Amino acid sequence: MNILITGAKGQLGSQIMNIIKDGKSELGAIPTQVAEAKVIGIDIKDLDLTDLKAVRLYLKELKPDVVINPAAFTNVDACETSIDTAFKVNALAARNMAMVCEEIGAKLIHISTDYVFSGVGTVPLKEHDMTAPVSIYGKTKLAGENFVREFCSKYFIVRTAWLYGYNGKNFVYTIMNAAKEKGHLTVVDDQRGNPTNAEDLAHHIVKLAVTEDYGVYHCTGEGECSWYDFAKAIVEYSGINCTVDPITSEQLVNRAAKRPAYSSLDNMMLRCTVGNEMRDWKEALKEFINKINV
């Protein structure tokens, strides 16, 4: 099996590379086909995913059996002012990958987001629930999903949320650094979702790669919380002497994009197909912090 991973230097792409190299994740062994696969990781300097001709040439020469596509423009506020760039990276690049995967018969695992939903509600969202994004980031990611559905027959669309991993910038590192520096933080408590450890997400992505259980998946940490709850847990598990107080989203300044107030996801498709092994968000967070504090 040949596997191509885009965004290989990002927190998810690098995590997928690492567990394939190790043949296991924190959740256990990964499929033998994946562990023994030839894996190529590329990043933005290696291939412009928004260039259809370049993508076609590269993939037709490489002939991957599976393409895993975490690459995206994820700066939510910057997307509001760089709309064309957001569309090219989040939508057209997905279209290009889908078209060429179909041409070469490859499976496509495309990573998407909770931002495709409106944020209105109180019940965890299932894969079949109606999408209605409220930001440019969410709208361009949904456009990417739609291109994947339209142009590729062997696809997995995997939506995740509130992702943190060992490599790169994320909320956990940001809170830990700010807590050490300031000793007091204020964090919004009126947005709820699912913190997701990239290790858990990577494990389920490679599980899907060896199946033909195509479709749309939600893959997030079990249980939900607010950003305030998440921050408090980070500070507590890190043993940092810092107080954390709640604020409302309206009290934040310099945020161009609207965030979904409620975007908790239900991993229904995982339960119904390959199995849902996603850890409770607190358990996964404790393991993450214990590892980085060694």
Written account of the structure:
This protein is of the alpha/beta class and 294 residues long. It has one domain: NAD(P)-binding Rossmann-like Domain (Rossmann fold), CATH 3.40.50. It has helices spanning 11-22, 32-35, 52-62, 76-81, 83-104, 136-151, 171-182, 198-209, 227-238, 268-272, 281-292; strands at 2-5, 24-25, 28-29, 38-41, 66-69, 107-113, 155-160, 163-164, 184-188, 192-193, 196-197, 215-218, 225-226, 243-247. Strand 2 and strand 3 form a beta hairpin. Helix 1 (11-22) packs across helix 8 (198-209) and helix 3 runs parallel beside helix 5 (83-104). The relative contact order is 0.16. GO terms for molecular function: dTDP-4-dehydrorhamnose reductase activity. Pathway: Carbohydrate biosynthesis; dTDP-L-rhamnose biosynthesis. InterPro entries: dTDP_dehydrorham_reduct (IPR005913), NAD(P)-bd_dom_sf (IPR036291), RmlD-like-bd (IPR029903). Catalyzes the reduction of dTDP-6-deoxy-L-lyxo-4-hexulose to yield dTDP-L-rhamnose. It comes from Clostridium amylolyticum.
Q: In CATH's first tier, which class applies?
A: Alpha Beta
Measured as a percent range, the helix fraction is 40-55%
Multimeric status of the protein: single chain
- Major sheet summary line: 6 strands, parallel
Instruction: Give the strand content.
Output: 15-25%
Named CATH topology: Rossmann fold
Strand count: 14
Give the ordered list of helices and strands: EHEEHEHEHHEHEEHEEEHEEHEHH
Estimated structural class:
alpha/beta
CATH homologous superfamily designation:
NAD(P)-binding Rossmann-like Domain
Number of helices: 11
User: What is the terminal-to-terminal distance?
Assistant: 35 Å
Kindly give the count of domains.
1
Q: Calculate Rg over CA atoms.
A: 19 Å
Keywords: NADP, Oxidoreductase
Family: Belongs to the dTDP-4-dehydrorhamnose reductase family.
Pfam families: RmlD_sub_bind
Enzyme class: oxidoreductase
